[in-house]
Amino acid sequence: MAVAAVVTGVTGVETGLKWPNDLLAADAKLAGILAEAAGDAGRRRHRPQRVHRGPPKLSHLLAAPPPPARCPLPRCARAGATTLDRGELLLAILAGFERWYRAWQQAGGDPDRSGLRPEYTRLSATIGRTVRAELPGGQALSGPAVGVDSDGRLLVRVSSGSEGSRVAAGDVVHLR
Questions:
Q1: How much is the average pLDDT of 125-141?
Q2: Is 87 within 8 Å of 76 (Cβ atoms)?
Q3: Cα–Cα distance measured from residue 20 to residue 126, given in angstroms and rounded to the nearest whole number
Q4: Count H helices, E strands: the chain?
Q5: Which position has the higher pLDDT, 139 or 37?
Q6: What percent of the chain has pLDDT above 70?
Q7: Nearest in space to 76 (alpha carbons), one of 66, 1, 169, 172
Q8: Please, are residues 117 and 22 in contact by the beta-carbon 8 Å criterion?
Q9: Is pLDDT of 163 > 50?
Q10: Distance separating alpha carbons of residues 132 and 6, to the nearest angstrom
Q11: Best CA proximity match to 30, nearest among 63, 53, 72
Q12: The pTM is what?
């Protein structure tokens, strides 16, 4: 969400989020954040001990400078700058991430009270679309994506009247 806000602010291009971790513009993938669980596989735990997150891959977004009037960062405005360097972009993303992290902490990890889930839902390019979720183990399910639960799992309605099957991991394809 922090990356989406900065990219939209700098370029003026509306962005969306494809569940769980891709940044889109006009249905084209601009960036993604990779996550890998780490921990002792022998332990019976619901959650991994650590999750390593890789940085978003945004290099191709920085090939052209932003329009002169679109540099929203305070330092740019003070300096009268018309371009934004990679360091400024990274600082803006980190500041946005910090704001969301602090809101989440202050809300005791509650994604609704912190505003995380409502904002993710607002930015979602997946919710409301028909998707195919290719699950680990070769299974797949299809249907409309109807929401994201409080643990970040995608809710896919596979039969009428159902609340939605929870998808915790998998490759999601937006169907037309």
A1: 93
A2: no
A3: 9
A4: 4, 10
A5: 139
A6: 70
A7: 66
A8: no
A9: yes
A10: 29
A11: 63
A12: 0.73
Per-residue pLDDT tens digits for 72-92: 545 454 455 555 667 888 888
Q: Tokens representing 26?
A: 């006009």
Among 123, 6, 25, residue whose Cα is nearest residue 72: 6
Contacts of 33 (CB under 8 A, 6+ apart): 3, 21, 53, 54, 55, 56
What 3-state class would DSSP assign to 37? Answer: strand
Phi first, then psi, for residue 86 (nearest 5°) are -60, -35
For residue 65, what are its two tokens?
């400078």
Classify residue 154 by burial, with Cβ atoms within 10 Å: 0-12, 13-18, 19+: buried
In the numeric block, which tokens belong to residue 144?
A: 């409309």
Instruction: Say how many CA atoms lie within 13 Å of 8 toward its Cβ.
Output: 15
DSSP line for 39-98: S-TTS--SS-SEEEEPPP--GGGGSSPPPGGG--SHHHHHHT-SS--HHHHHHHHHHHHH
Contact 154, 142 (CB under 8 A): no
Token readout for 139 is: 């299974």
Q: What percentage of the chain reaches a pLDDT higher than 90?
A: 47
